[in-house]
């Protein structure tokens, strides 16, 4: 019966699905065979147009590549079509892909209605009011037009760079036996303990208890929190990753993080993406082994993307570039520098004694300020530098205490122009020391001897039940994009930037 019902389908073979080729797919093969009898169709937006009496030249971009395709349009009788071909208009053009006599492009699309060519205007664009004009537009102006700024060549290139980096990251972690996981965006904890989490609540209370028609005097009042306890947007996925690493061993995620940072700087966003990894059973060489893994990852993905055309397109936005720190980082075989926090502070103090001026005096026990980080990476080292073993008092509760009991097995990777790119550590796996650190951080109350009432009890449990040595790190994705591309304001390294006092769309 069932066989008969589906018999008609059995004979039909599955049709292979594919969308029409985009400009990258049309132009990328080095051996494009030109068959003038065959027509090609290109859909995209006009990025510039030059109209002459008999012929018009339109540059078409579809965002698939930093290269655009020139279409040579033989003007037909319909002036109306010609009038609608303007900068920004969406078009579909059918014609012949032919070798281009012009320089700067190998091929062009010849569209001649007499030989079957078709020009279709799918979406008109008023050239007078279109905000993305051909002239140079400032980053500030483009941020004000966040919904349209991806139409510019360099922002589109940055978006493709993000895409390529994301793919390379996935394949690097896959090669190393990591599992990609999805951790919650809504959390009950403030992982970094810096008080920068956004608190979450519904616009109006929709708790079931509050919607009952006539509350009786004995009905308890509805809880003030949707989840019965405070909820936040995550500042870091680390703690949840640690839970998953106790089962899957090696896990990572590239996910959004949110921080209510009041700082109005070119390196801080309120919503950004972080690549975070946690792995159990790390190599026995402590924090230096964590640095080794981090360096291997960044070198691998960075070297690959440095070959890409998109970096050239982005170069138009570059804020600096006198000295090619990137070449130092990626073209030399020498491992990136490593120094302890204590050594770093001594170097900074030496610099001060030699006349270098800092706003904040470097001193052991105080945080390294952005000016110190940039001095270390740019002036002292001239490339990336791992600074390890910071004082425990400067770092969050989860980092592994060193035998000196003053410092923790952690690192910050500092790079020129950006400052801190990555933060990571060996995690404290010894339950008794972790509990002490959590009490000191105020995560377990003094009057809670067993920690039963702490909302972080589950985190302590991870150590009590088969707690294994493990380590991890977090890298700001926009800072990575900014460092590799030379675009040092990370507001240009995310599609729609949000920062304190500013959220469009
Ligand atoms: O040093 P952070 O605060 O470390 C953590 O959150 C750890 N829990 C990560 C981990 O070990 N899994 O942040 C890590 C990185 C920083 O080095 C920086 O690159 C980036 O996240 N970052 C920001 N990027 C953009 N805007 C912000 N407001 C950022 N805050 C941190």
UniProtKB/TrEMBL annotation:
<dbReference type="InterPro" id="IPR002312">
    <property type="entry name" value="Asp/Asn-tRNA-synth_IIb"/>
</dbReference>
<dbReference type="GO" id="GO:0005524">
    <property type="term" value="F:ATP binding"/>
</dbReference>
<dbReference type="GO" id="GO:0005739">
    <property type="term" value="C:mitochondrion"/>
</dbReference>
<keyword id="KW-0648">Protein biosynthesis</keyword>
<dbReference type="Pfam" id="PF01336">
    <property type="entry name" value="tRNA_anti-codon"/>
</dbReference>
<feature type="region of interest" description="Disordered">
    <location>
        <begin position="203"/>
        <end position="227"/>
    </location>
</feature>
<keyword id="KW-0030">Aminoacyl-tRNA synthetase</keyword>
<feature type="domain" description="Aminoacyl-transfer RNA synthetases class-II family profile">
    <location>
        <begin position="159"/>
        <end position="495"/>
    </location>
</feature>
<comment type="similarity">
    <text>Belongs to the class-II aminoacyl-tRNA synthetase family.</text>
</comment>
<dbReference type="InterPro" id="IPR004365">
    <property type="entry name" value="NA-bd_OB_tRNA"/>
</dbReference>
<dbReference type="GO" id="GO:0006421">
    <property type="term" value="P:asparaginyl-tRNA aminoacylation"/>
</dbReference>
<dbReference type="InterPro" id="IPR004364">
    <property type="entry name" value="Aa-tRNA-synt_II"/>
</dbReference>
<dbReference type="InterPro" id="IPR004522">
    <property type="entry name" value="Asn-tRNA-ligase"/>
</dbReference>
<keyword id="KW-0436">Ligase</keyword>
<dbReference type="InterPro" id="IPR045864">
    <property type="entry name" value="aa-tRNA-synth_II/BPL/LPL"/>
</dbReference>
<protein>
    <recommendedName>
        <fullName>Asparagine--tRNA ligase, mitochondrial</fullName>
        <ecNumber>6.1.1.22</ecNumber>
    </recommendedName>
</protein>
<dbReference type="GO" id="GO:0004816">
    <property type="term" value="F:asparagine-tRNA ligase activity"/>
</dbReference>
<dbReference type="GO" id="GO:0003676">
    <property type="term" value="F:nucleic acid binding"/>
</dbReference>
<keyword id="KW-0547">Nucleotide-binding</keyword>
<dbReference type="InterPro" id="IPR006195">
    <property type="entry name" value="aa-tRNA-synth_II"/>
</dbReference>
<dbReference type="InterPro" id="IPR012340">
    <property type="entry name" value="NA-bd_OB-fold"/>
</dbReference>
<keyword id="KW-0067">ATP-binding</keyword>
<dbReference type="Pfam" id="PF00152">
    <property type="entry name" value="tRNA-synt_2"/>
</dbReference>
